[in-house]
Amino acid sequence: MAVTVRLFAAARSAAGMREVQLEGATVRDVLDALQVTSPAVARVLPQCSYLLNEVACRDHSASVADGDVLDVLPPFAGGAH
Q1: What is the pLDDT of residues 24-77, one digit of tens each?
Q2: Residue 36 main-chain phi, psi, to 5 deg
Q3: Which DSSP state fits 16?
Q4: Mapped to the 3 state alphabet, what secondary structure does 22-51 carry?
Q5: CATH assignment of 2-73?
Q6: Residue 11 has what DSSP assignment?
């Protein structure tokens, strides 16, 4: 199942790409495939939050389907005070 993984901020920088198509049956499978594709991203992933089809996803055992989108969001600095 091809899932589009979109990378932002530090995850994008570590991976050296904005987006990649990966295979997997669960969020964990997709994240594991991402680390194989780009080992440097492994250091960033533990601090990241994830959106699966624009909905917060904390359960890495969640199933993914062909065409799903997984956003990888590292902590962002700044914002309103």
Answers
A1: 999 999 999 999 999 999 999 999 999 999 999 999 999 999 999 999 999 875
A2: -70, -45
A3: T
A4: EECCEHHHHHHHHHHHCHHHHHCHHHCEEE
A5: 3.10.20.30
A6: H
For the chain, how big is the Rg over CA atoms in Å? 12
Nearest to 74, CA basis, from 8, 28, 1, 14: 8
Amino acid of residue 8:
F
* Helix-then-strand count for the chain, H and E: 2, 5
**Lookup: tokens for 66:** 């062909």
Look up residue 49 and give its two tokens. 């939050």
Please state the domain extents for the chain: 2-73
- Of the two residues 46 and 80, the one the predictor is more confident about is 46
Q: Is the pLDDT of residue 23 over 90?
A: yes
Tokens matching residue 19: 């987006």
User: DSSP label at 69?
Assistant: E
